[in-house]
Design a protein that fits this description.
This protein is mostly helical. Helix content is 63%, strand content 8%. The chain has one domain. Helix 4 packs across helix 6, helix 5 packs antiparallel against helix 6 and helix 6 packs parallel to helix 8. The longest helix is centred in the C-terminal third of the chain and has 41 residues. Its cofactor is Zn(2+).
């Protein structure tokens, strides 16, 4: 009976989600929330970030970032070419993000590693790549499914061995899920965002080779890293190698974009 309950629970979680295909052809499980809900969540998170962090009023800096965002988003598929909102935060950490609903946030610290418009395009293209690849939806769907299964598994253990065993099973199961299921998915998403973002930048007329320089700058500025298998990001040296190899294949795309008049002049 316990095995039957677990099987029914797994089937319920799987059927509650939809199977989709990412921009790179990878199978995804999505659908825990609607796109409208995702957009609302993105707008709420963005509003909260702007209320809690200092937003830069530097007109030149804001225009620079908005220029890159506009050139990148112009290359998005139909349905994603919304009026993307941009905010620059006065924060020394080299970070940026993009959210469902067409939101992009950039910390002023990113300019310490993104030395020119092509490198900034690599950052922004990567972050927007997460959005158009539906990574937020995918993470929410997987986390909800994992939480449901862990709860059911703990209850089954508890019915046989008591509440102490149930609590221990829940904690161990959560650690295992985080290490072997959720974190590897994050690394997969990071690599996919690199692929999508680098191609978007090349189509917009930004030099895809500059993504290599960006991540070299990132690696030089970074501190001690956790082991790769416990990290949500790919190993820097592997990532740089992949970006360099991909840049070579994207040069014809970049050259065609430039020949077609896509010559960004953001700064």
């Amino acid at each position: 009976m316990k095995h039957l309950l677990l099987a029914v629970a797994i089937a319920t979680v799987v059927t509650a989600c939809a199977t989709s295909t990412s921009p790179t052809g990878r199978k995804q499980y999505v659908g825990a929330v609607s796109q409208q809900q995702l957009d609302q969540m993105g707008a709420q998170a963005f509003a909260e970030a702007k209320s809690k962090q200092k937003v830069s009023n530097d007109a030149k800096m804001n225009a620079y970032v908005r220029c890159v965002v506009n050139d990148i988003t112009r290359e998005l598929p139909q349905g994603w070419q919304t009026n993307w909102e941009v905010a620059v935060f006065e924060d020394s950490s080299a970070n940026a993000f993009a959210l469902p609903g067409g939101k992009v946030g950039v910390n002023t610290g990113i300019f310490t590693v993104a030395k020119n418009q092509d490198q900034l395009a690599a950052v922004i293209g990567h972050e927007i790549g997460h959005v158009v690849s539906r990574h937020h939806d995918e993470r929410i769907t997987k986390q909800q499914g994992t939480s449901t299964l862990l709860g059911i598994g703990s209850a089954i253990v508890g019915s046989a061995y008591g509440s102490g065993a149930a609590n221990a099973a829940g904690q161990l199961g959560g650690a295992a899920a985080q290490t072997f299921y959720l974190l590897p998915n994050s690394r997969t998403q990071e690599t996919e965002a690199d692929v999508v973002g680098q191609e978007l930048a090349a189509k917009a007329g930004f030099d895809p080779r500059q993504a290599v320089n960006l991540w070299q700058n990132m690696a030089a500025a970074g501190g001690e890293r956790a082991p790769t298998w416990l990290s949500t990001h790919p190993d820097p040296s592997s990532r740089i190698g992949e970006l360099g190899a991909r840049a070579g294949t994207l040069m014809p795309v970049y050259e065609q974009a430039r020949a077609s008049g896509h010559t960004p002049k953001c700064g």
